[in-house]
Amino acid sequence: MTSSSNKLPKVPLNPFEDPVHEISVTMETDVTLDVDERNESAAILSISPSAEPRTVLNTNNAYSRPYLTHDELSLREERLLQKEMELEGRERELHLQSNRLKRQGSKPNNFPSVWPVMYHNIEEEIIESDRTIVRRLFRSWLFTMSTLFLNSITCFLILIAHAIGVNTGATDFGIGLVYTLLIGAASFFLWYRPVYNAFMKEKALYYYIFFIFNGFHIGFQFYMAVGIPGSGSGGLINMISMISDGKILAGVFCIVTSLFWIVGGVLSLYLYNQVQSHYKVQGHTFHEAKTHAVLKIASNSR
């Protein structure tokens, strides 16, 4: 009976491991070979159970990777997200510009037709699946403009009707004219144009701008339907005053104006929900909108 002790050389625990991370492995085994002299063909190879592989990790390596905290990982993730959003936005804008150039070349401003200040083309700038809802949003804005003009006419009729107990006709007419110019422009630039850009560029920030200002717009429509004297509205309360004093023409215009405001408010609510559903389907988040806003402020400050 003979005994031998073998020591295996140091080998990497994982052959694909970075070579600078050394792993020292020491394995000691005691092998005892018993041979029966009476039966030379029978051999028993036994390994001592006390011999167990021992793994020693070299922790003194100067090149070991530093441990990153949760905040550092979050910061890196946010930076990567910002870069990804920048690249996606640039790619989408380049794609839109290339489509414009391929079709008709560089296009001049075409909206509004009486005094063009921007380019507006739903058929070309909005993808086919979103054109229906963008057309409805544009018609909603046109309906708002029509209601504002009708409201101004109604307030003028209230002014010349001189109904008993109504002494705010001049105020209503003046405020109504201001609303026609101010609300018309504000509604276009504060909620229609942002939602147009949202569907064109698919950016979360534009959706949030629409949600905020279109929400105020919906409240304004129902407020105007009430028709408080001196508020610049030919709504329900002014209608009652006109009809009570026999001013039929002014009363009829007040009725129609009130209906326009109510229908416009209901239509705006419906479209608001449609845009919100689209926003959720696209998977946008408030964090994405905040990141886009920071990037936009940073780019404008350069």
3D structure, described in words:
- There is one protein chain.
- This protein has 302 residues and is mainly alpha-helical.
- The protein has eight helices and five strands; from the N terminus they run βββββαααααααα.
- The protein has helices at 70-103, 122-125, 131-161, 169-201, 204-226, 236-244, 248-281, 286-301; strands at residues 2-7, 23-26, 28-35, 43-47, 54-57.
- Strands 1-3-4 form a three-stranded antiparallel β-sheet, with no helix packed on it. The chain has a two-stranded antiparallel ribbon with strand order 2-5.
- A hairpin with a 7-residue loop joins β3 (28-35) and β4 (43-47).
- α3 (131-161) runs antiparallel to α4, α3 packs antiparallel against α7 (248-281) and α5 crosses α8 (286-301).
- It is elongated and about 80 Å long.
- Keywords: Membrane, Transmembrane, Transmembrane helix.
Walk me through the topology:
Layout: E1 2-7, E2 23-26, E3 28-35, E4 43-47, E5 54-57, H1 70-103, H2 122-125, H3 131-161, H4 169-201, H5 204-226, H6 236-244, H7 248-281, H8 286-301
Antiparallel strand pairs: 1-3, 2-5, 3-4
